[in-house]
Design a protein that fits this description.
Number of strands: 2
Radius of gyration: 24 Å
CATH class of the largest domain: Mainly Alpha
Number of domains: 2
Strand content: under 5%
Oligomer: single chain
Number of helices: 5
Distance between the termini: 55 Å
Order of helices and strands: HHEEHHH
Strand order of the largest sheet: 1-2
CATH architecture of the largest domain: Orthogonal Bundle
CATH topology of the largest domain: Cytochrome Bc1 Complex, Chain D, domain 2
CATH superfamily of the largest domain: Cytochrome c-like domain
Helix content: 40-55%
Length: about 150
């Protein structure tokens, strides 16, 4: 190889490298799209109740304390797998009753412990929220969070 790089050599390296990495980027984007479309939650599982539960999640700004699928604050537990941890992901009625009992017990008043505020949600809002949390527990997260407690 020559010790001096000419302008045409530098230009060819630049264009060749650019084309190479653009092709890699396009290939990875296509692979990601194919993977996500084959493994993601199916839209037919998005019921009006799940959508309403997501709106409650957003309206009450639960993400300021909780994480869901790894996104959010780390002040309170991960909720993407809470229905699995509670063992109620297969029974919407059990999920509703468990979530309702939990939310009605808050705040516990135990000194020195993090407390969840009382949101005074209606039964329908709690049912919608539990349906949303059941739906999130069925998303293929590729083993996220890394432990059961989030």
């Amino acid at each position: 190889m020559r010790e001096v790089m000419t302008k045409s050599m530098a230009r060819n390296i630049f264009y060749g490298g650019s084309i190479f990495f653009v092709l890699i980027f396009i290939g990875l984007a296509i692979n990601t799209h194919l993977y996500i479309s084959s493994t993601s939650s199916h839209p037919e599982n998005l019921t009006p109740s799940v959508a309403a539960g997501k709106r409650i999640w957003e309206r009450k700004v639960c993400i300021n304390c909780h994480t869901i699928l790894g996104e959010g604050a780390y002040f309170a537990p991960e909720l993407g797998n809470v229905m699995v941890r509670w063992g109620v992901q297969d029974d919407p009625q059990d999920a509703f009753e468990t979530l309702q009992a939990w939310m009605e017990a808050m705040p516990t008043g135990i000194e020195g412990r993090r407390q969840m505020p009382q949101f005074n949600l209606t039964d329908e809002e709690i049912r919608n929220l539990s349906d949303f949390l059941i739906w999130t527990s069925k998303i293929d997260t590729q083993n996220w969070p890394p432990n059961d407690a989030g």
